[in-house]
Write a structure and sequence with these properties.
heterodimer, A: mainly alpha, elongated, B: about 190 residues, mainly alpha, 9 helices
């Protein structure tokens, strides 16, 4: 096409003619007659009606299927949501169990940690810890190796009493209400950090009261070379 | 048909009323077929018209409008998309490529063709199909679908001014071709 088509004389049509042709008001022109023929009907134009109606029926059925799919999707979503809630519940329960376990472990750890400050809770300590070194049965050799930094008589007497009779219960029980670092229990006269001297079983600042200790272990058992001397420093240093 | 009646018809079809859909089909299918014939030719128009109505069935629930012209424009926009899809399909498969331009080949110059010419509508559509697709499309939408310039512009994605220009160009070309046919009737609808 060329720009010449925009000239009024091209095809004998002006812009106004074109607009009138499009409006159907110039049937006298050849192009107007052609455009009028466009308004007619093509024979057999409805031949595809059967197929279109079949498509419509199929579409309607598909619509029902789609609705059922939507229902299924909702059910599935509800199921998934329920599963999530169930999983959450299980997780919550598990976490609660974990919390229980943790609290149990914490309590045990607390006991365990407390046992590190205590002289000899070894009978209830589940795992060997540094506090176990204060156990009479495990520390006595070390106590001897440390040349006696003053534990107690009981530790020196431990060989003859593997099980401490004054510690039968759980260390976390109120049988040990007093912190050993603050106040020595009569049955725990020796500070755990201080090693017992094999020849000085009794701590001078915490003299063992023979009448208060029911155990023969803590009782001032006479040493062969160093008989018990309450109130006298037993350190060899 | 009043706007209210047409709205009820559309709603009934959307609810699955076959008779309502049949009425819509019978009202619009001739327009769809002529529109597609004008831009693609007979060989493709019928298939595209069938695809168009399948799409109409699929998307009928999404249509919202109360005017017959709005529904017609909606259906024609679907037909146009099917045509564009067809052109793309043919472009992607060049080994079976058929000329995507409008069917510009002259109709067989035999007795049946003369009957079609005499029939008027098919002859007019064949003449229209000789135009460039954009011009033929605009004239078809303005004349066959009886859409105004704004509705036509909305369908083809052009400005109203561009639509006017295309329509005028097409009409002038038709006028030239018709004048040539008159002066040389044996030349057919196109130069070949």
């Amino acid at each position: 096409m060329t720009t010449g088509e925009f000239r009024p004389g091209d095809g004998g049509l002006t812009d106004s003619d074109c607009e009138e042709l499009l409006a159907g008001r110039r049937p006298d022109l050849p192009v107007g007659a052609l455009l009028q023929n466009l308004g007619g009907t093509i024979e057999g134009s409805l031949a595809g009606e059967t197929a279109a109606m079949a498509a419509f029926r199929t579409g309607a059925a598909r619509g029902m299927v789609i609705r059922s799919h939507r229902l299924s999707a909702r059910i599935a979503a509800a199921g998934i949501g329920g599963s999530i809630l169930l999983a959450g519940g299980v997780a919550a329960a598990a976490s609660g169990q974990f919390r229980h376990d943790i609290s149990h472990v914490f309590v045990g750890h607390h006991h365990h940690g407390a046992s590190t400050d205590r002289p000899a809770p070894a009978t209830s300590s589940p795992t060997p810890t540094p506090s176990a070194s204060t156990h009479p049965g495990t520390s006595r050799g070390k106590a001897h190796a440390d040349h006696g930094k003053g534990v107690g008589v009981g530790e020196t007497a431990a060989p003859t009493h593997p099980t401490h009779p004054s510690h039968p219960a759980h260390p976390a029980t109120p049988t040990h209400p007093v912190h050993p670092t603050k106040k020595a229990h009569p049955t725990h006269p020796a500070h755990p950090t201080k090693k017992a001297h094999p020849t000085h079983p009794a701590k001078p600042t915490h003299p063992v009261k023979p009448t208060h200790s029911p155990k023969p272990v803590h009782s001032p058992k006479p040493h062969a070379t160093h008989p018990p001397q309450s109130g006298h420093p037993a350190k060899s240093k | 048909m009043s706007t209210r009646d047409f709205a009820d018809l559309v709603r009934s079809a959307q609810r699955g009323d076959e008779l309502a859909f049949q009425a819509l089909y019978r009202e619009n299918q001739p327009v769809v077929l002529k529109y597609l014939t004008a831009i693609t030719g007979y060989s493709t128009a019928e298939d595209l018209a069938s695809e168009t109505w399948v799409s109409v069935v699929r998307d009928l629930r999404s249509f919202s409008g109360d005017e017959p012209a709005a529904f017609r424009a909606w259906v024609l926009s679907i037909a146009r998309r099917r045509w564009i899809d067809d052109v793309r399909r043919r472009t992607r498969r060049p080994e079976v490529l058929v000329d995507t331009a409008p069917d510009t080949t002259p109709a067989p110059d035999d007795a049946s063709s003369e009957v079609e010419r005499a029939a008027g509508t098919r002859w007019a559509l064949q003449m229209l199909a000789t135009l460039p697709p954009d011009q033929a499309e605009v004239i078809a939408l303005r004349v066959i679908a009886d859409l105004d310039v704004h509705a036509t512009a909305a369908i083809v994605g052009k400005t109203p001014g561009a639509v006017r220009v295309l329509a005028h160009r097409g009409l002038r070309k038709l006028a030239v071709d018709l004048a040539r046919d008159v002066t040389n009737p044996t030349s057919g609808t196109t130069d070949s």
